[in-house]
Design brief:
This protein is mainly α. It is 87% helix and 0% strand. Helix 5 packs antiparallel against helix 7, helix 5 packs across helix 8 and helix 5 runs parallel beside helix 9.
């Protein structure tokens, strides 16, 4: 019961406010490094390769199987109402608006986010961050900024690949396996998908998710305790916090897009 004493509650509140303030200051510094990061474009390019290319197989395979499932489930649902020809439109809208950005962000957090956290945490445990500071090299500009902007750029591209392979998966199941008319499948997509409302909203979501997931991964790695246990705990926190943040932001963005 000692935890409920006023001094302990006050200390906990103050600690959380201090952590939030530190995160806000770090986020502001990362945004301010956009000019420096792209002056050293080689660093950003290498991180895009590391985060994007190595995440691409899991993104494409997951998108393909999600398309398979949606093509199969969607066909039997639409068949009840005599709208099986709208299968392509249903699969495409579901992927562009929701599943593409959200599932890609969750996979990105599990694959690239944990890698970023572990990498930064191990650099801190090996005292590489401290050595940079002693040599008057800003680790935020040299280490964090290229990774942050690379994650922001990579996430929308991965979400686009997820949605594209998902549509192909829905076409394989719906047209090749079940027998839905291929012309109706693609014509419904062409006529029903709005570039700004559907595709644009998906791009905005994936961009916001990329900012959130990459920042959480870098923050946890930069604040990790310089021990193997500390790095392991920081990696776990990255997955949990990034996943919950993506789901929460998805609800907020969806509500804003449908009401504004």
């Amino acid at each position: 019961m000692s935890w409920y004493q006023p001094k302990n509650i006050g200390f906990a509140v103050r600690s959380h406010l201090d952590a939030m303030g530190y995160a806000a200051r770090l986020f502001g510094r990362l945004l301010a490094t956009v000019g420096y990061a792209f002056k050293r474009s080689v660093l950003v390019r290498d991180q895009i390769h590391f985060l994007g290319n190595y995440s691409l197989p899991i993104i494409t395979v997951a998108g393909l199987f999600v398309g398979f499932v949606f093509g199969l489930q969607g066909y039997y649902v639409l068949k009840r109402y005599g709208s099986a020809e709208s299968l392509g439109l249903m699969v495409t809208l579901s992927l562009l608006r929701e599943l593409g950005p959200v599932v890609s962000a969750l996979l990105f957090a599990g694959r690239a986010g944990t890698s970023l956290t572990a990498e930064i945490g191990l650099m801190k445990a090996g005292e590489q961050i401290s050595v940079m500071e002693m040599m008057a090299v800003d680790p935020i500009e040299r280490v964090l900024a290229p990774r942050f902007w690379a994650g922001v750029i990579t996430m929308p591209l991965l979400a686009a690949m997820f949605s594209a392979t998902g549509v192909i998966g829905g076409w394989v199941v719906g047209v090749l396996m079940i027998g839905v008319d291929g012309g109706a499948f693609w014509s419904q997509i062409q006529g029903g998908v709005d570039v700004f409302q559907d595709l644009g909203n998906g791009v905005i979501k994936s961009f916001v998710f990329g900012v959130a997931v990459t920042f959480i991964a870098l923050l946890q790695g930069y604040n990790a305790q310089a021990t193997p246990e500390g790095v392991a705990k920081a990696t776990t926190r990255t997955v949990v916090m990034a996943s919950l943040t993506v789901l929460g932001l998805d609800f907020i963005l969806t509500a804003m897009m449908f009401t504004i």
